[in-house]
């Protein structure tokens, strides 16, 4: 069960990073604020899962409960670092990579 929780944190972090980065690259820097909404929603989901999971393992040892608590905190750190990574990647792409989109001319090669 705990492996599933870790996997959800990694997948959630990947979704936050890629969606934020693609939105900012496609529509501009201000669309990174939509990534904040994704980030907050995933953190709220993680906290809800944490409460539900902690209620489920009432018979577990204190060490197991502490480990589970740390894993859910790790998921939140994964989500936060993923958002920050998308901002860093956006800056690097804008500064060092030139993206050129060429559309073919309807009459063939002109000029």
Write the layout of secondary structure elements.
Blueprint (H helix, E strand, L loop, with lengths): L1 H26 L4 H25 L5 H35 L15
Helix pairs in contact: 1-2, 1-3, 2-3
Over the alpha carbons, how many angstroms does the gyration radius reach?
20 Å
* Residues in helices, as a percent range: over 70%
| Overall geometric form | elongated
* Distance between the first and last residues' Cα: 63 Å
Q: Main beta sheet: strand number and arrangement?
A: none
Low-confidence stretches: none
> In what range is the share of β-strand residues?
under 5%
Category by helix and strand content:
mainly alpha
Order of helices and strands: HHH
Average pLDDT across residues?
Answer: 86
Count of DSSP E strands? 0
Helix segment tally: 3
